[in-house]
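Field reference: "sequence" (input) and "structure" (output). Example, Flavin reductase family protein:
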Amino acid sequence: MDDRTFRSAMGKFATGVTVITTEVNDEPYGMTANAFMSVSVNPKLVLISVDEMAHMNNYVRDAGKFAVSILNEDQQDMSAYFAGQVEEYRSVAFDRFNGMPTIPGSLVNLTCNVHDSVIAGDHTLYIGEVTDISISEGGPLTFFSGKYKQINGSVEVKEV
């Protein structure tokens, strides 16, 4: 199979959308990621996947910690910005949560210390031990088949 077929098949798995953030030398950095999952309840572990060529890979490695902001249905602009789909520079007013930069208004913000990392193919998998969690109400921003989707209260999916 070719790379496009593989990517198309993986795109059929609906995911939430997150922004991964960290801070190095008091400078915040972020990237959009849908490669995020819970790993363990005891201890509380999550996993993020970062492209080996992404600058974020070095930032997470250097900082030894990261935050995950699970975006709400109204935060497509944040996702697009941190995915590099918006070309102009924006000054992002990060919230501070447990000493880490996070995206304001997100459904969930959690902070993690890097517990372990594994290079797998062209990505590094970072397993983070969760140090704090903040939860808000709202609907999730989701991604399916290369497009943003929203789920309303009756679980109807609409394209955005």
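Helices lie at 3-10, 55-63, 76-82.
The mean pLDDT is 91.
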